[in-house]
TrEMBL record:
The gene is A3GALT2. It is a single-pass type II membrane protein. GO terms for molecular function: hexosyltransferase activity; metal ion binding. Keywords: Glycosyltransferase, Manganese, Membrane, Metal-binding, Signal-anchor, Transferase, Transmembrane, Transmembrane helix. The keyword Transmembrane applies. It comes from Physeter macrocephalus (Sperm whale). One of its GO terms (biological process) is carbohydrate metabolic process. InterPro entries: Glyco_trans_6, Nucleotide-diphossugar_trans. This is Alpha-1,3-galactosyltransferase 2. The keyword Glycosyltransferase applies. Belongs to the glycosyltransferase 6 family.
Length: 392
């Protein structure tokens, strides 16, 4: 059930993805978006990509000034013609930085073979700790298929509760059968309070579906946050004893649209959020309430990670879910609730325990973000949000 400051204040339930559409911008979001543009226009960024979204990496002073002038002019024009909502689309003009040449020969793993980070020169293709950021074109799909471990079983967990079960689960499973880890052994783990309502989907060879019952929660916020606790309990019990060696945890209100293969696997995997992947770090919506276990202070945090997709080995996932569940429990005993719930704790955990691989926004994309030249082949697409219908 799987998402922060997104286009609106209210994040929405997990099971779902908490993202809101751009049509209901609140005043706080408008101010934040205005600040984002002003920061892009007036702030001179670092010339190294070592600090995540430090921005402007590799630009000369002249090139920097020219880019800032262009951005300023476009920002003012956009405000005049379309008002503040257009500001959210100006992130496309913010440079992401480049992967240091010294690290390029080191980018390889057991699931993709050699990586080619220079194939996407306009985006960041590695992190300062040496983890690859997987974009279309940076890996060879044929080589990836060859590198895939034979007889490897991959788990895919999805939480489908309340009306999300009826609205989204069938499409999620049907498109997963078409695109998710084709040729691999796959086990779908569906967590729901209504096992009898799980749709019957025709599964291919070596693909199975298991259903686990969860308790129905009263508030949608609790639906969102209980996932970490339920996953941790399952990983320490029946799920940990199952056949899957690697598990991806994905929100149900999405559908697979292109091949989603073993290039997405690693010891620990994090997903960049489509709305914020070009934003500078100081503008990323980390939890800022110092009382919360999810809090990140100024200068802390690497990227803003989307809780709609994360995964890894059984051991890594158990560590991750334990950290998040513990933080959520601590906040609750203090009467606190992180602004973006389990996602805030996820970003904190991945800052402390760096992921081995990052997935580009292509792996979890929303057309509401707008057209982006670097988004070539979205593998997973968000469904339209229908909160009035689904939360009733």
């Amino acid at each position: 059930m799987a998402t922060g400051q997104r286009p609106v204040q209210d994040p929405g339930p997990r099971g779902s993805g908490k993202e809101q559409g751009p049509q209901n911008l609140g005043e706080g979001q408008r101010r934040a978006q205005t600040e984002f543009v002003l920061m892009c226009v007036v702030e001179k960024g670092t010339k190294t990509p070592e600090r995540g979204y430090g921005g402007f990496a590799g630009l000369t002073d002249t090139g920097l000034q020219e880019n800032l002038l262009i951005l300023s002019a476009l920002g003012l024009l956009g405000l005049l013609l379309h008002g503040l909502p257009v500001v959210r689309h100006l992130g496309v003009l913010t440079p992401m930085g480049v992967c240091p040449l010294a690290r390029i020969p080191l980018l390889r793993d057991n699931f993709t073979g050699p990586l080619h980070p220079w194939a996407q020169p306009e985006v960041l293709t590695c992190t300062c700790w040496g983890a690859p950021i997987i974009w279309d074109g940076t890996f060879d799909p044929d080589m990836t298929q060859q590198e895939a471990v034979q007889n490897l079983t991959i788990g895919l967990t999805v939480f489908a509760v309340r009306r999300y079960l009826v609205k989204y689960l069938a499409c999620f499973l049907e498109t997963a059968e078409q695109h998710f880890m084709v040729g691999q052994c796959v086990v779908y783990y569906v967590f729901t309070e209504g096992p009898a309502a799980v749709p019957r989907v025709r599964l291919g060879p070596d693909r199975r579906l298991r259903v686990a019952r969860v308790v129905r929660e009263r508030r949608w916020q609790d639906v969102s946050m209980v996932r970490m606790r339920a996953l941790h309990a399952a990983l320490g019990g029946w799920l940990g004893r199952c056949e899957a060696r690697f598990v991806l945890c994905v929100d149900v209100d999405q559908h697979f649209s292109e091949a989603f293969g073993s290039e997405a696997l690693a010891e620990s995997v994090a997903q960049l959020l489509a709305w914020h992947y070009r934003w500078r770090r100081r503008l990323l919506p980390f939890e800022r309430d110092a009382r919360s276990a999810a809090a990140l202070g100024p200068g802390e945090g690497d990227f803003y990670y989307h809780a709609a997709v994360f995964g890894g080995s059984m051991a890594a996932l158990r560590q991750l879910t334990a950290y998040c569940a513990r933080g959520l429990r601590r906040d609750r005993t203090r009467g606190l609730e992180a602004r973006w719930h389990d996602e805030s704790h996820l970003s904190k955990s991945f800052w402390l325990h760096k992921p081995a691989k990052l997935l580009s926004p292509e792996f979890c994309w929303s057309h509401d973000v707008g057209r982006r030249a670097e988004i070539l082949r979205p593998q997973l697409l968000w469904a339209p949000k229908e909160y009035a219908l689904l939360r009733g």
